Amino acid sequence: xxxxxxxxxxxNILMLDMRKVTLLADYFILCDGSSVRQINAISExxxxxxxxxxxxxxxxxxxxxxxxMLVDFGSVIVHIFSPEQRAYYQLEELWKDAPIVVRMx
Length: 105
Known about the structure:
- By secondary structure, the chain is an alpha+beta fold.
- Strand 4 (68-72) and strand 5 form a beta hairpin.
- A six-stranded mixed sheet has the order 3-4-5-2-1-6.
- It has four helices and six strands, in the order αββαβββααβ.
- The mean pLDDT is 94.
- It has helices at 2-7, 36-52, 83-89, 91-94; strands at 11-17, 27-32, 59-61, 68-72, 76-81, 100-104.
- The chain has one domain: Beta Polymerase, domain 2, CATH 3.30.460.
């Protein structure tokens, strides 16, 4: 999923190992999209890759226009932010005890 986000030109990609921090998911992936169009492209790319892999349907919350979309794949939750929304919500700070698996700037 990190590679898919990167292929859609997502910025500031961060993957956190959540297994010892919360029961919500095994991993969180956070990334930025610079526009409504790019946020949509990232989310659609992730969902398309899931379909190709034959996995179950993802749950999607939010809209590209809101600046924050959440794509829930069960054990992995991807947060796609506008830079402004990411700075406002600061999920990295909220989950600072989670080990960083991948960081791509």
